[in-house]
Amino acid sequence: MNDYQKHEDLQKSLSRVLVYRSIHENLATSGQPQLDEFDLIAKAGFEIVINLALTDASNAIVGEDRYVLERGMDYLNLPLLFDRPSLSQALNLLNFLHASRDKKVWLHCALNMRVSTLVYLYRIYYLKMSEPDALALLHDVWIPNDIWQQLIQQVHHHYSSR
Length: 162
Description:
Protein name: Phosphatase
InterPro entries: Prot-tyrosine_phosphatase-like
CATH class: Alpha Beta
Organism: Aquirhabdus parva
Number of domains: 1
CATH architecture: Alpha-Beta Complex
């Protein structure tokens, strides 16, 4: 098997992760990966795993942090309450993604809803994607409810007032 085939097989395997999305060569997102899927994530060269879900999410994995760290990846848990997302947490994540743009980052939450909303904002403010294109990609995962629409507006206000 040549390197191209190995890469394609790995990409096909990653696509089985819950609500997987490749954002660019250094950023991928998903819902909660299973333990064996973290092996694939490590094999694909990801260096950092960021989890936005809380440890009591219905599909959370006990010991995820240890499992990820034992596979040689860094682990960051930056939980966002789904029913009360924090503007400061959102801005911290956006800044961290930008600062880590040269590293391979896997960003996940329970169902890729929190993540896809923040990646929508990341696409607009850091990747300079048009708002309609970023919105279409967000809506491919979900249409944010009123609570998340408020967070989006807060982030827009933050960046427009800088």
